[in-house]
TrEMBL record:
PROSITE patterns: PAL_HISTIDASE (PS00488)
Reactions the enzyme catalyzes: L-tyrosine = (E)-4-coumarate + NH4(+)
Protein name in UniProt: tyrosine ammonia-lyase
Pfam families per UniProt: Lyase_aromatic (PF00221)
Cross-referenced Gene3D superfamilies: Fumarase/aspartase (Central domain), Fumarase/aspartase (N-terminal domain)
One annotated GO biological process: secondary metabolite biosynthetic process
Annotated source species: Acinetobacter bouvetii
EC number(s) per entry: 4.3.1.23
Amino acid sequence: MQVLVVGETPLSIEDVVAVARQEKLVALPASTEWRELIQRGADFLDQLLQDEGVIYGVTTGYGDSCLVEIPPHQVNELPLHLSRFHGCGLGQNLDLISARAVVVTRLCSLARGYSGVSHALLERLVWMLNENIIPVIPSEGSVGASGDLTPLSYIAGALVGERDVYHQGQIVPISRVYAEKGMQPLVLRPKEGLALMNGTAVMTAIACLNYKKAEQIAVASTCITALNVLALEGNPSHFDEVLFAQKPHPGQQHIAAQLRDWLNSEVQTEHQSSRLQDRYSLRCAPHIIGVFEDSKVWLRQFIENELNSSNDNPLIDPVNLRVLHGGHFYGGHIAQAMDSLKIMIANIADLMDRQLAQLVDYKMNNGLPRNLTGATDERLPLNHGFKAVQIGVSAWTAEALKHTLAASIFSRSTECHNQDKVSMGTIAARDASRVIVLTEQVIAALGCASVQAIHLKGLDGKLSEVLGAFKTWVLQSFDYVVEDRPLQNELQQLVDRLENLELLQSGLVR
């Protein structure tokens, strides 16, 4: 298995996703320069404590309690109290993949050397990832400023031998794991509780996963659109190269180029309706999917800049030996990225919903059977094909659209008005995750419906390489509907497989 070195070079979204999916191990840099940088930060903190310097969150209380002085003999207890009183998270737990993404995201920030943590802390985080002993993290309880304090407290709590972890397919107390392995819980040094918890790792980790899933949705929805242009006898000239040169959004042009490439021109000529202009859900697909395609540049920039930042407070400058108080825990960029992403993806769900409405309606589907049923004439009165699937798609789309209200505008004043303007970035990221799941369900349904429509039109053997590959991918989990049957399991299998859609790995899709 490949090893990802965390600490000296920036990580990518793909790096986080690979570690989250257990496709890569992690390691710390071996260079003397990096180790000395980490040690200087820790030593500088020790010197400040010895000199009785005032350091927020080290010799003072937290937040509005920053004026409360901590007696020297209690300084070492403070990190443990921070992790404990924040142990109030509720809601559904992050799944194992998401929790792994959070741990590697926090490791990336701390290993930059500006948080004043020890080698031992970083090494224990590496151990957690490589041994797949991962904190169980409740998803709710963060306002996204002063960091993801409550959810990240579950990492700190696990390190010190408290809370639960995912281990060997079960949820068990970390204390049991330490005992089985003959290990001692980590004793957090001054500032290390704050360094672990005061940052944007939860929202940023979720954002990395959301971004990659959104890429798959964009590819799948473009394939489905191409299949539906064929099945509905659409007009391929809507994606003309000269036409799209006149509206120079590169991502939009890229989607139109994919549609041109993936549509078989011979089939288009043989099967084209007399309708001069297709309905918007076909004609304007590049304009809708292209919004995400064009936004990928700035979305990646926002997410990866946050990923590769030191985002706790205060920062410990190991070069100039300064304590820097600021607000880098504020998740505004991730909030903006996720609020925007969920709108883009919900629009794709809506696009797919409108395409399915055309496919199942005999009044507008250019000769396809009612509700895409494959039943014989004798059995036709009994069978209803995709009728209920279309209702389900409408429900999933409506719910996705409902979640698009921007979370970032709902700032609350918290913690005695110390945190009086907060980002809501973690809620925005969670909202985006929900929109993505709902849209994946829509994509699964449309994948089945579009493949069924192509089959009913007798176009199976006339597809381009990419569309043929997509059809094969769908048929690995779906059989053509002849007689009515429950489709729940087949749809769920496609949802589960979508994040590994082979088209992106095959090289067929640019």
